[in-house]
Amino acid sequence: MEWPYDNEAGLLAEEDCDVLVLGGGLAGLHAAIAAAEKGARVTLLEKGAAHRSGAAGTGFDHWEMACTNPGCTVTPEEMTRALEEEQDCFSNAIGHYIETREGWDRLLDLEKWGGKIRDTEGEFTGAPFRDDATGLMYAYDYRNRYTLRVWGTTFKPALVRRARRLGVQLRDRTEACALLTCEAGGVKTGTGGLGFDTRTGRITVFRAKAVVMAMSRPARVWLFHSDLPGLCEFRPLSSIGSGHAMGWRAGMAFTMMEKSVRGEFSAAGRSFPPYGTGNNHNTWYAATMVDARGVEIPYVDRDGRELKTVLERYLPAPGQKFFLKGGVIDEPKYEWRGPETLPFDELMRRGYRLPFYADLTGMPDSERRVIWGMMVGQEAKTRIPIYENYTERGFDPARHALQSYGTGWQSAAFLAQERQLFGAPGGVMHNWNLETSLRNVFAAGDMLYASDCAGHACATGHWAGQHAAEAAARAPMREAGRDFVEETRQRLLHPLTVRDGLDWREINAAAAKAMQNYCGGVKCDSLLRQGLEAIGELKQAAGEISCRNPHELVRTHEVSDILDVCELILHASLQRKCSCAPLFFERSDSDESLAAQERCYLTLWREDGAVREGKVPLQFYGDLTSNYEKHREGGGLDE
C-alpha cells in the first residue's frame, strides 16, 4: 500500500512558545492546562492523538490518595509517610505529597470539564462503598475513603477539550525527539525541543522559555516479542521511555534507575490481557477466590485473622488506622497492606487445588456489579476487549467464575531475569518545583522517580505546568544550537537512506535478550560491564536499520531510545555496589560494607562524554507541609 501522506522528510520548520510540553497523557495535558491558565503560550507534542493517547487513554477505574476529599479520614502527611514506610524511604515524598494534597482538586477540575467522578444516576445507591450524600464511590478501604472509583474513560476527552479552549497548540502525531539546551550563566538550561511528524517526516524546532517533560516510563527493555504484544501489554506499546532517553542524552540527573521488578504485564505475550482473567488485585479487589473444587480461599487481615464477611475485606484490622489498597494471592504484606488472601505456599499446604477462580456469584449484588461493570468497564484496555467482549460471548458474573492463570493476578509465571520498570520505578531527580537538574526543564507523571498512578500524574502535571509558566515569565527566548539541530536531524532521518538493512524489531529483541542476560534478577560488575558492551554493539548495529516510511522510522527512533535507557539502567546498576531489597536489587558480588553509605538516592548523569555520579539523602525534601506551602504559589525557587 502506498504511503498516504506527503513526504516532508527533508523539511525543517520552526515554532516559538512560552512553555513546551512533551507528552499528551494525563500529566502532560494537566501541565499544558495549568501553564495556559497562567497566561503562557503553550505547545504540546504528542506522538499519538491526545484524545486517547497514553497509559490512561483507554480509561482507568480508580483514583488513589485523594486525601482531601470530603469522606477521607487520612491526612496527606499520614499517607505520604505510609508510602515512605512501605517503600523503606526509597519513595518520592515530594510527588506523593503533591498528589495527596491536590489530587482531589484535580478530580474536581476534571468533573468541571466534563469528566465523570460520581454515581450521578444512583446505580449503586445504598452500597457500603457509596456516599449517598455526594454520589462519590470509594474503593479498597471503605472506612478511610482515600481512593475513589471513577469513570476514567471520560477524562482524556475532557482534558483535550479544556486544553483547546485555553488555546493550547496540540501537535498530535508529533514525536518528541530531543531536548534543546544551552549554557546560560554557567548552568545548562532548556531552550525547547525537536518534534518529528510521524506521518510526513517533517522536523520542527520548537523554541521555548521552559519545558515540561511528561512522557512515559520505559518499557520493552527486558521483554519484547514482535509477534505477541497486543493486549498483553498494560501500557501502550509506543510508550517506551523516550523522555528518559532524551533527558539522559541532554545531561539530566536520574535516580533509582537500578530498580526493577519481575515482569507483570509484558509486551512479549507472556501474560493474558490485564484484568481479563480471574484475580483479586486492584480492579478486581476484593473478589472472592475459589479453588478448582469451588472451595473459597479465605481473606486475612494484617494480623492473619481470617475474615468471615465480604465487608470485612474492605475494612482495616482492629487497631489499624488504614491500609494501602488490596492484596494478591502470592505476595501478601501485613504492614500497611491488607486485608488479603493467605500466601500461596500456605494455600498449597492447606490442600487448595489449582486452578483458582474469581467467583463473584456469591458476593453482594452491588459488589459484583461494581467489579464487573464499572471497574472492569473503566480500567485500561478492559472496556471493549474484556467487559464488552466477554459479556457478548455469554459471561455472566452472577452465574460464572473466571479462571485465574498462574499463581497470582499477573496471570503468568515470569522468570527472574524478566524485569520491568513497574511499581514506583526510577526516574528524574528533581526539586520541590519539579524542576530537573536542567534549569527551566520540569518533569511530571511517569518521568519522576517513584512515580504513581493517575492522581499522581494529574497533580504533578498541574504543579509542573504552573512552575514552568512562572519560569517562562522570567526567562528570555534563547536560540537553539544549530549544529546540534542538524546533527539530530541527520540521525533521525538516516534509516531512510539505508537499503536492505536490519528491521527495528531485530534490534529491540536483541536488546531485551542482552538485558535479560546481563542485567537480570541477580547482577554483578562483570555481567553489567558485558551488558554495556552488548548495548554499545547494538547501538552500532542500529545504524544499519532501514525504513520505508515515517511509521517504521518512529519505531526505529523508539529502539534508539530503548538502547539509551538500557545504558542508563546498566550504569545505575554498576553504581550501586550493595544489594538493596526495597529496590528489588540483588548482587552476587554485593559489598555489604557499603550498605549504610548507599542508603540514599544514587544519582547519575552524563557530562562531557562521561557518566557522573552523586548522592542525595533519602529525606532531602525537608518538612512536607512547610515546603509545600513555600513552593505552592511559585515561591521558594530552588538552587
Write structural notes for this entry.
The chain is α+β, with helices and mostly antiparallel strands. Among the domains are: about 280-405, no CATH class; about 495-595, Fumarate reductase/succinate dehydrogenase flavoprotein-like, C-terminal domain (Methane Monooxygenase Hydroxylase, Chain G, domain 1, Up-down Bundle), CATH 1.20.58.100. The chain has 14 helices and 23 strands. The strands form 7 sheets. Strands 1, 2, 5, 6, 7, 8 and 19 form a 7-stranded mixed beta sheet that branches. The radius of gyration is 24 Å and the shape is globular.
What key attributes describe this structure?
globular, Methane Monooxygenase Hydroxylase, Chain G, domain 1, 16% strand, alpha+beta, single chain, 7-stranded mixed β-sheet, 639 residues
The description of the largest β-sheet is: 7 strands, mixed
The Cα radius of gyration reads 24 Å
Helix percentage range: 25-40%
Backbone structural class: alpha+beta
Are there runs of 5+ residues with pLDDT below 50, and where?
326-337
The total of helices stands at 14
How would the blueprint of this fold be written?
Blueprint: E1 12-22, H1 26-37, E2 42-45, E3 62-63, H2 76-86, H3 93-113, E4 148-149, H4 155-165, E5 169-171, E6 174-184, E7 187-197, E8 203-213, H5 242-250, E9 254-255, E10 261-262, E11 289-290, E12 296-297, E13 299-300, E14 340-341, H6 344-349, E15 356-359, H7 365-378, H8 383-392, E16 401-404, E17 419-420, E18 427-428, E19 441-443, H9 454-474, H10 482-493, H11 504-518, E20 522-523, H12 525-542, H13 550-575, E21 586-587, E22 601-607, E23 610-616, H14 624-632
Parallel strand pairs: 1-2, 1-8, 2-5, 8-19, 20-21
Antiparallel strand pairs: 3-4, 6-7, 7-8, 9-18, 9-22, 10-17, 11-12, 11-15, 13-14, 15-16, 22-23
